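User: I'm curious whether this sequence folds into something compact or stays loose and floppy. Could you predict its structure so I can see for myself?
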Amino acid sequence: MKVANPAYELCLEQQTLWVRAIGVWTSRDIREYIEDFRDIVQPIINRPWALVLDVRAWQTSPKEIFAGVTDNSNWCVQHRLAHVIALLPADYVIGWQFLKATAIEMPDTLVRQRADTAYEARRNLFAAGFLEVNALPDEQKTG
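Assistant: Here's the prediction. I'll summarize afterward.
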């Protein structure tokens, strides 16, 4: 059952999945996230795709969720993920926890970047060919 205040938002745009992680995640949140994530990217995994992980509103979460995060990261790499951009919070500890949770063995071909704003991420994805239009939707203009 989905809750009124979701723990994440997913938005598929061309060959890019935008993920916004919100608040503290529970075991149920990670299970639902993985299911929704894999469903939404199905149309694009037949060729290289990109992922923007916005964890600026995410909070430190129980260690129980990290097995799911690691599993999903491995699944992404196995399904042609080619480019990842992370929007990290100002809080160093939260950013470190997120990076540690997603630290898996990555292929040399996977491009990993950090960006300060959604606009910067969008510019990078446009330059890399994952977005065809270099325009910001209204909801992403604030970065």
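Summary: The chain has a mean pLDDT of 86. The chain has one domain: 8-130.
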